[in-house]
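Notes from the 1:1 (GR / supervisor)

We went over the backlog. Supervisor wanted to see one worked example end to end before approving the batch request, so GR pasted a single chain during the call. The sequence is below; no edits were made to it. Supervisor asked that the structure be written out right there so they could see what the output format looks like.
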Amino acid sequence: MSHPLHPALVHFPIASWSLATAADLLGLVIGAPAWQFAGLLHAIGTVSALVAMAAGFADLLALPPEHPALRDAQHHLLWVSLAWSAYAASLLLRLDGLSLRTPDAWALALSVAGFAALAVAGWLGGRLVYEHGVRVRR
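Structure output shown during the call:
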């Protein structure tokens, strides 16, 4: 068993997206500077998540069909996909060509929804490692 790449890669989108949502909420108080920062973090998280998701998908394909963790892994994939979709949609709603504009209510709502989906996905990822021992050498 080689060293799993997925756990090392997920830190980038998780940190970027979590900070993006925090900056979006801060933007409700201070406005444009926080939202510009949030938009950049949305972009970093959305792109880096594609790499992390590819590594996670490779781990999913390595699970045998009878593995007891398969159901949790499939749910993890679903929630991560929902998080990615919400954050990517939020990013698209704030793009004006190659520049970022002030997010509307939908963009902000999608950021918060993405964070909620990310939290569920993270909890399920923890179950995969700590309850099922997926990709953990025994």
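Supervisor's comment: Residues 46 and 88 are 6 Å apart (CA to CA).
Batch request approved.
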